[in-house]
Amino acid sequence: MKKIGISKNMARGIFAVLIIALATTLVSATLLSSFGTVETTIDVSQSVTIDTHDWNVPVTHAIGGYAGCCHCFEHTVTNNGCEEVCLEFETDYVEGIGFVYYEKPVEPSCCDHILETLVVKVLDGMAEWDDFDVYVDGTPVYSYDAQGGNLEDWITHNIDLTPFSIQCCGTHTITIDCTSNPWTHFDPYGQLAVDYVALYCEGEVLCDSVDIGNTASESGHNLQGWGPIQPAASGGAYGGINDCRCTWFYGNPQVDTSEASVDLACEDCYDPPSECDCDHQGLDQFCLGPGESIVLCLCYDLDILLAPGMYTVTSRLLPISG
């Protein structure tokens, strides 16, 4: 078997190639280390603002008036940063001037609640033809099978709406549909007399109500499909009531519908909050998450015996270190 040998010249050549390759690799590594340089310029704005001003910029008030009075001012503090921050007001004490700050009460909204109860007052006459269904905005919420009997009874139906989770705010169409066939005296007395409709939000807060048959009460409630005011139009007993309307009635020409509707509005059914005043429990501190804001009331209570003159109260918004 023939041995393969490497001459000294060949060995020197291979070694030279290895040195050149290694040198090339080292040079490349050195050059690559300077590639991809990133230079970033950061222009930082203050994250916490009070009334859109940086939190460390003074906000001034000039109060004129008499001792023994309370003066309050609203301020919005916002955290535009990416982390939660806790803050407090530090105030220089001035004898005879009390200082308190607190979160302004949030105005309650009907949209934060659901409809709770619908009340309808309907006549159940002697004949068993006063069956009806009730709808709120097209949703069926109640059915009643007439009892009939020897008397004409006005029955107040208190309908629980909470299972339907209907948002309180806005205008709601209440539809009452007589589900029986017209009775013998449909002409002229009509059928299914209704006297009253009322709508309540959570907490039995009255949204709106209508006295059906009372034109002043009906005004602005968009009544659709109702007959004339009874008993003024046709005579008759109608359970001894002064005014009502029927959902199914004889017109000229005959009205071929068994249902009637009324709109009830729930826009201002909750009382607005009180304005800022000195009669509130103050905050020691407050925290704001990223993007959160708070409306604060800053109130200054001047003692009745405070001497006349010019006073300066300095209140600083300070971050609370963790």
Structure description:
Helices cover 10% and strands 36% of the residues. The chain is mainly β and 322 residues long. The chain has two domains: 48-106 and 273-319, Immunoglobulin-like (Sandwich), CATH 2.60.40; 128-266, no CATH class. The strands form four sheets. It has a five-stranded antiparallel beta sheet with strand order 2-1-3-16-5, with no helix packed on it. The longest helix is centred in the first third of the chain and has 25 residues, at 8-32. It is elongated. It starts with 7 loop residues before the first helix and ends with a strand. 22% of the residues are buried.
The largest sheet has its strands arranged as 2-1-3-16-5
Q: What is the strand tally? A: 17
What is the CA-atom radius of gyration, in angstroms? 40 Å
Instruction: Outline the biggest β-sheet.
Output: 5 strands, antiparallel
Cα shape: elongated
Q: With helices defined by DSSP (H or I, 4 residues minimum), what is the helix count?
A: 3
Mean pLDDT: 85
Number of domains: 2
Residue share in β-strands = 35-45%
Spans of at least 5 consecutive residues with low confidence: 10-27
What's the N-to-C terminus distance? 83 Å
The percent range for helix content is 10-25%
**SSE string, helix = H, strand = E?**
HEEEEEEEEEEHEEHEEEEE
> Which class of secondary structure composition applies to the elements?
mainly beta
